[in-house]
Recover the amino acids of this structure.
């Protein structure tokens, strides 16, 4: 069955290679907040697209634990995600884009001929198809069980967003806050509460006083805690991945939303969009005229086998073909918008841009609502914290730091 699915998906991809090159138009091309003139900046545009981390179907990885009588059992699940994992791969791509912006910056570019920063390799290790990689297909599929999805079942944009939110709680290296909006409403108060929460970090750095600082000679625990809190104040804001699941129509996208949808890709905080067509998920990264530009996960590649701390052959994690395009009107109306805000000022700027551009101007045409205070009729907002999780399949790791035994292991990544 896996072989049939892989052959089918590769045929689709082979056909797409014959599609025409990017059209020569006067309209600018927007890629994740960056604007390009095709007539003068085409090479820069292609370099930008090629630098995005590209996650596709893989085969021959260690079997994913399957759900049998509500118990995850290792070694009895699929060893390929061909045919069912495309939305999970798109979820990996939108999260990877946030992590690249977090550690390397939006202007970072991948060059296969140059040595990459150690942060790049650490990010890539987070997504390898291994049960102990914190954002692997194994972890995502098994976390999806808690969202009512069996291992091997297809996901929608909202479900994969919920999975990312939960997995991020176990990632102490990136310290990313993932906020998924409810009922088409983004609550500024709740986001700031979540991004300023340090509960998970303080636990991971706990000392004898329950904080990261140990009391000095003659100093009380309360004094040591105060010193720790003071040192933490400049670092209070946790980088934010904001995900906004939407339905922009019934069977197809309502034309009244098209302009606002395109404006999302112009925002400097743009992290892409999860969506596609029924049972075909794509990671949308920009647009040209009336067409969307996307990365397609429907290519089945061999799983990359590497030891913890060793260099990864990363050629297959970057799409080096001309990017795919599709008409905006062909988009399924169920999508999830993604935005990355590294600082509180960045988030405040995103809120302002939402009103200045077409997203929130006209009440009857708004894609979503942006409100200052938590709605009184909603349940109280409690920032998510790391739960106690036990599985018999993939084991959660406390932090990507544990993939590397020492700093020396990073050096081999830069050879």
């Amino acid at each position: 069955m896996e072989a049939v699915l892989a052959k089918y998906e590769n045929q689709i991809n082979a056909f797409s290679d014959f599609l025409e090159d990017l059209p020569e138009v006067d309209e600018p091309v927007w890629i994740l907040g960056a604007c390009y003139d095709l007539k003068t900046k085409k090479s820069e545009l292609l370099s930008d697209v090629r630098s995005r981390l590209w996650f596709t179907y893989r085969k021959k990885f260690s079997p994913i634990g399957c759900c049998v009588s509500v118990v995850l059992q290792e070694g009895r699940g699929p060893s390929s995600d061909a045919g069912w994992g495309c939305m999970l791969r798109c979820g990996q791509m939108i999260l990877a884009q946030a992590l690249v912006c977090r550690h390397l910056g939006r202007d970072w570019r991948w060059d296969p001929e140059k040595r990459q920063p150690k942060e790049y390799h650490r990010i890539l290790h987070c997504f390898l198809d291994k049960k102990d990689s914190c954002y692997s297909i194994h972890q995502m599929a098994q976390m999806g069980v808690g969202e009512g999805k069996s291992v091997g079942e297809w996901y929608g944009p909202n479900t994969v967003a919920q999975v990312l939110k939960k997995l991020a709680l176990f990632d102490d290296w990136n310290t990313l806050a993932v906020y998924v909006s409810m009922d088409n409403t983004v609550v500024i108060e709740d986001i700031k509460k979540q991004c300023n929460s340090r509960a998970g970090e303080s636990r991971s750095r706990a000392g004898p006083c329950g904080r990261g600082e140990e009391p000095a000679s003659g100093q009380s625990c309360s004094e040591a805690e105060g010193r720790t809190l003071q040192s933490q104040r400049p670092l209070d804001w946790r980088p934010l991945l904001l995900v906004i699941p939407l339905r922009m129509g019934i069977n197809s996208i309502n034309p009244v939303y098209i302009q606002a949808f395109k404006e999302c890709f112009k925002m400097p905080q743009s992290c892409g969009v999860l969506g596609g067509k029924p049972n075909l998920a794509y990671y949308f990264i920009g647009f040209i005229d009336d067409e969307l530009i996307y990365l397609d996960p429907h290519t089945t590649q061999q799983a990359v086998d590497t030891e913890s701390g060793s260099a990864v052959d990363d050629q297959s994690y970057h799409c080096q073909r001309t990017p795919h395009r599709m008409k905006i009107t062909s988009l399924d109306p169920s999508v999830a918008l993604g935005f990355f805000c590294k600082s509180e000022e960045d988030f405040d700027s995103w809120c302002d841009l939402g009103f200045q551009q077409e997203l929130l101007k006209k009440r009857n045409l708004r894609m979503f609502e942006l409100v200052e205070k938590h709605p009184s009729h909603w349940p109280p907002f409690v920032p998510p914290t790391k739960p106690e999780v036990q599985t018999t399949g993939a084991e959660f790791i406390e932090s990507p730091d544990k993939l590397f035994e020492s700093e020396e292991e990073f050096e081999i990544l830069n050879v």
